[in-house]
Amino acid sequence: MREDDGRKLDHKTLEALRVRAVGQVEKGARVEDVAAALGLNRSSVFKWVAAYHAGGKKALRARPVPGRPPKLSGVQTEEIYQIVAGTNPDQHQLDFGLWTRDLVRQIIATRFGVELSLPSVGRLLHKLGMSPQRPLHRAWQSDPQAVAEWREQVYPPIAAEAKKKGAVIFFGDEASVRSDYHSGTTWGVIGRTPVVKTTGARFSVNMISAVSAQGKLRFSIVDGTMNATRFLDFCRRLLRDEGRPVVLIVDGHAAHKAKKVRKWVDSTEGRFTLVHLPAYSPFLNPDEWVWKNVKADRVGRHAITGPDQFKALAVAGLRRLQRLPQIVRGFFADPDLAYINAAA
Prior knowledge:
This protein is 45% helix and 10% strand. By secondary structure, the protein is an alpha/beta fold. Strands 3-2-1-4-5 form a five-stranded mixed beta sheet, with helices on both faces. Residues 169-298 form the Tc1-like transposase DDE domain.
């Protein structure tokens, strides 16, 4: 199909083309020249001229599109989009936390008195540019005002000061991966759930990492649970390996606020700065994407056979990210993290 094929044009545009083409022919232009100038087929122009001679300008008008008219108006459709994109079902006294086609159908029936089938609701949502997705879950305790202040008032001066003294900013976090964590899908026979054999023993690997907007990743495997001593050891190595001032941004974990940690930070005389994110706001931390990548995209897709293999998979996933700084930089493209690049 040609780029200028008339079948790609809407009805109103085609009507204007028909009127224009016929008008030029009636003024004495050759059909071939009109067709070439407008990117049309010569036979189409001949048909339009014949229709004009038989029925006048009325014959050139766009005809109504066949089929039943939509049950929802444009305004109603826009309202459905705003409801699904901007609110949760429980805000509408619906007893569920995720939008389903059935819940959207209930909203449409309640608000507009229009009954739609589930397939019709699905087509409507696709038309609005929506698809079923796994949502990010956020703590209701998160303070929107504190988050806004962090983005607009707290972080920009931190970034400016770091740039002034040549410091690198890292965002850090800890995570634990369990051997019974599984992710991903596999092909199988319809009606027969595939079985992947793995160990029945349960064990975990604890890790800490830090990422920068330049694509750097530093990590450490932690033996036992995270405490002030282990966190402090990670901070010391981070400062030593960078060889320049470091700003590390972390959450409010008790180990991050321990007395011995604060004492060491003070002893660095500004070479190491520790900053805490607002409470219950992991979406402000790009290091969360490290764990999603390692846990869900790497470790969770393997059949686990034992502790050593499990640990090796976690380490391999982290080292892979170290070799691919473009992926680490991509973590910062999350819309919730736009404030970081905006202040760069």
